[in-house]
Amino acid sequence: MGTSAKQLGVVDITERIGSEIRTDVETLLGGQEAENIRETLKLRGVVFFRGLQISDEQQVAIAKTLGNIVANEGQDGIYKISLDKNVNEKAEYLKGSLFWHFDGSLQPYPNLATLLRAVKLSETGGQTEFCNTYAAYEDLPQADKDAIAELRVVHSAERSQYYVSPEMSYDEIAFWQKSPTKACPMVWTHRSGRKSLLLGATADYVIGLSPEESRALLARLRDWSTQPQYVYRHEWQVGDLLIWDNTGTMHRALPYSVDSGRLMHRTILAGEETLQ
Ligand SMILES: [Fe+2]
Questions:
Q1: What's the whole-model pTM score?
Q2: How far is the CA of 3 from the centre of ligand 1 (A)?
Q3: How close is the Cα of 10 to the center of ligand 1, in Å?
Q4: How far apart, in Å, do the first and last CA atoms of the chain sit?
Q5: Exposed e or buried b for every residue in 124-149, given b needs 16+ CB within 10 A?
């Protein structure tokens, strides 16, 4: 960290999560600080560059200095996040992003990180909140760590849709059940040896617990992980570029109106660590 981090101008926003990085577009495009940025991202969960005002091409170029971008994710590495069906035909599905989750819980390799750039903002709402699931795990009482060490949680797309649409029809349920479910550990032990909690809106049930115990435990750990000391709320300005470590955080957008015009351009970095 030390000297190189200082060269980047890293300003921690809260104690446990979120840093602003002050640098210029040329430095980011050159890639000479890419390792520092990745390191800072791992330590801080979220980093952002205020008002960077870059193009789509520059966003993708910066992403490529940091990892492998997910090729099929939208055209040329840019995916448009909007709740307006005219902009994104999957707008209905994206409403699930208003609830705590991490991306790619159903994939073999959850995404490493996501870059999000504010193109147009809603007049009200639309902030994005992040919580640090490394810090939340580290602070758990030892008895909880012991109790959850071996637990596995089944994640499903169907489960996350109940947040958006609590009274789904049979046809809707049948549709979401076509997506395969996936069992993930509740505690993710990373290659680094650090551990984080794996929860979120796709977390359906804990294997081996009664339905009541399972729901209560998942809610208790989510409440724990989203306490103010683990949360950073980003108040967007147009042109901001923000990156979150998707392997050590959860996120959610705060509500905003569907016709607000809010538009984010997203680029995803492919996961490098699988979940056993
Ligand atoms: Fe997301």
A1: 0.94
A2: 33
A3: 25
A4: 30
A5: eebbbbbbbbbbbbebbeeeeeeebe
153 alpha carbon – ligand 1 mean position (Å)? 19
Distance 212 CA to ligand 1 centre (A): 27
> What is the tens place of the pLDDT at every residue in 195-218?
999 999 999 999 999 999 999 999
Model confidence pLDDT, tens digit, residues 17-59: 999 999 999 999 999 999 999 999 999 999 999 999 999 999 9
How many whole angstroms from its chain centre is CA 220?
A: 20
Smallest CA-to-CA distance from 25 within 60, 62, 57 is with: 62
CA of 4 to the centre of ligand 1 (A): 30
Q: Indicate the residue type of 228.
A: P
- pLDDT tens-digit readout, 49-102: 999 999 999 999 999 999 999 876 667 889 999 988 888 888 777 888 999 999
